[in-house]
Each structure stands twice: as structure tokens, then as C-alpha cells.
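Example record for the data management plan.
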Amino acid sequence: MSELRISDDGNLVLDQSEAIIWTTNTSVSSNSTVAVILDSGNLQLRDASNESNVFWQSFDHPTDTWLPGGKLGLNKVTNQTQHLTAWKNSADPAPGIFSLEIDPNGTSQYFTLWNMTTRYWTSGIWNDKIFSNVPEMTSNYIYDFQYVSNEKENYFTYAVNDDKIITRLVMDVSGQIKQSTWVATQQSWQQFWFQPIQQCQVYALCGAFGRCNDIVTPFCNCVKGFSPKSQSDWNLGDQSGGCVRDTPLACQSSSPNSEKDKFLKMTNMRLPVNSHNLSGVGE
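Corresponding structural encoding:
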């Protein structure tokens, strides 16, 4: 049994069977606090007698979703970033391997990263109107992005031109960032834009011994002789674990089966990033 409550020290705590799973873990100067969800979607922990005294708010700690009024950026004093991190898969909100963060070197652009190390897409530099690599921002754009840069921080925030529009920007488990709006008549989210446009531009999407095809769905499948390492993860949209051999290699064995090991030619494929060439002795 889980419970979300305010602890004796004033912090917001999520526990399960009396074991703390998560806490705001902040310094609270009041012995009376309340938790409030604003119309913007921002969850605040604040002084019960003074609503302007906010001790913690979810907009400062985004997960996979960026809402209007929130900000993503870099604190130059602490060198900490506010970034988006995708879920592990479509059913597990634990941190996944894809993220979106502002350039830590100070330029006004965002990067999507694999495992917080490898960049595979950039928004392009902000020119006070649009990101150069997001062409959807050039016509009938309903969002108003702003860039703030000072001695303490660099960050972007955005608003919607129509307050009646419900929208979100998500770092998806697919490795794509997706801006969507809520369509009340259909009771569903409608994608306004997403990047990278080609799913196979996402770095290491299909994992080891996996291959990606933008033309068919699902995008990922295993090369011949291999199967998904975890079919359950693949079913939930996480193919990063890649594929494993159906039959172990027998090339080091003297048995007759060792003659069955061979190289298979793969056509119409692009080599992986950081691929290596190997040559036999004497070649």
C-alpha cells in the first residue's frame, strides 16, 4: 500500500509499507506546509499561511514532461541542469536512457542524448524566434518560447498563445521529443511536431545486433540468427537491450557443427556509429 503525505518535518513524502520511496527532501522553515497542484500542472510544497513562500515545486524538477511555464536549463552556480529523461518503457516511469538538455557549453540550443553521453540530435541555435532545426515553428505556431541568459542561469521557458489549449512536450521512450496538444472531442493527444523525424536517427535505438527500419513497424528487429534479449521489454517499447544469439558460436570447437559458423552479408544497411574494421592476418 502506497501513501503520499506530508511528513513531520514538512516535506512531501511517498512511501510504500512505511518505506520511503521518494521525498522532496528540502529545507522547510515552517512547521505547517501544504501541497497544491496549480492549474498549470505545477505541484508546489508551500507555507500553509503564506502561499508565496514556496519550498519546492515540480517545475524545478521535470521528469519526462515539460509543461508551459516550466523551464529547462542550466544553473551556472551549481552546474546542475533541468533536463527531461524518458521513461524506461511505456509502463515503467523509472529513468530511461534518452534525455533532452540544454547545451552545457552555454549556446542556446538543446541536445537529445543517449545514456547522458552521446548526442544524436540538436534543436539548432535559437534565433529569438525559432530553433533552426525545428521547421514546424515557422508557420501557425501556437507556442511562445523565450530564452533567458544571465550570470546565474541559462534556460528556456514557453507559453501557449491560447490559454484554453492543453499541451505538453515529452521526452518519449522512442528517443524522440514530442510536442502534443489535447483534443477534447477525441479524448486523446495529437502530435504537433516531433524530432528526430526519422526514428532510426535515434542512437542505439535497437541495441546490440538489432537493426532499425523507418519504413516498417515495429522499427526494430533482430538480424538473422538473433532474438530479442527481453521480449517483454520490446513489447513495452524498450529495445535498448538488443538481441542475443539463438545458437552459440561453435568456431572454437573441433566438432562438425563448427563448420556451420559463417559470416552473413547484410544488404541495404548503414554501419553502426563508431564501427570498426577487422582484417585477417596477412591481409
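Summary line stored alongside the record: Residues 206-260 form one domain.
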